[in-house]
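Researcher: We're teaching a course module on how sequence relates to structure. For the next exercise, students receive a sequence and then see the predicted structure as tokens, so they can try to spot secondary structure elements on their own. Here is the exercise chain.
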Amino acid sequence: MIESINSAVLFIIIANVLVSMKGFNDYSFLDTYKFQVSRILSGEKVRMFTSGFLHVDWMHLAFNMYALYLFGGIVSGVLKTPNFLIIYFGSLLTGSLYSLLYHKKEPYYSAVGASGAVSGVIYSSILLYPDMSLYLFFIPIPIPGYIFGIAYLLYSIYGMKKNLGNVGHAAHLGGAMGGFAITLILVPSLISTNTLMVILLAVPIVLLLIFGDKLKS
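Model: And here is the predicted structure for the students to work with:
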């Protein structure tokens, strides 16, 4: 299947692998380009993008790149490369912005990972192809794509609440919001053709926007 992978998806995967490997072996590099609230607020805005190409370890990297491989092909295939890139980098930005907003009073909060961008691509692909089914390594039966998407979002909310690891769980949520909104802007007809799926995916986002602050308590 690697022969048919979209060139933009392949390029982003390679970039993530190379940059992450550099970060694995060079802490000063990781420290210079990771997401950190105080540094971003002091003017280092580039961290909002560079942090999306760094990962904490090989498992973190592999999970994100496998998800991008699966879902990026759907988005790039349906919407073509330029729109895929808009969704990917737009979701990366919204993920960082939401993370910055959520952790703005925690100057030393830091995180890395492509999860915000990948979350946006996942949400976008489910909107575009709501009937998809996924076979995951540890589950022998197909899982509806929208179930996976909502479960992924709920896990991110749990991870954000428990502050699990050096992973940008808040960025997952912001990225999902970005992918959801950007896809509907690019393909507004989805609101009428996939109304039920739009509502299902919108519910956890709306609830998060309303009650998100309570996750800190």
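Model: If you want an answer key for the exercise: Residues 58-102 form the longest helix (45 residues). DSSP finds ten helices and four strands in the chain.
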